[in-house]
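User: Sequence in, structure out. Go.
Assistant: Echoing your sequence, followed by the structure tokens.
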Amino acid sequence: MPSRDEARIKRRRSSAGKQQNLEMWLAFVFGIVFVTVMLVIAIAIPNPSSTSFFTYRVVLALAAAGIAAVIPGFLNVEVSLGLKNVIRAGGAIAVFLIVFLMNPAELVAK
């Protein structure tokens, strides 16, 4: 028969796993909701100001990182200028950097 301490440790591990699972799903739902909101805003406001465009990029990058946090696997990004690495990131932060640093509107304008 397990002792009281063993039972207490088992309950703590179980609740920690549930908490981690909840956080993972909340990040995913946050990402999906905000990607959907960003798509609606992009359709509703075809010519945003530069401040609005920057805000949209930040929110979209955060949403993509929230979705990427749920996807298994690992992504490693290194951005360098010349011979020195400037930015190194992995996982969801790497997805944030990719989405934030990419500017397709600027590519289309050129």
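User: And one key feature?
Assistant: The chain has one domain: 4-109.
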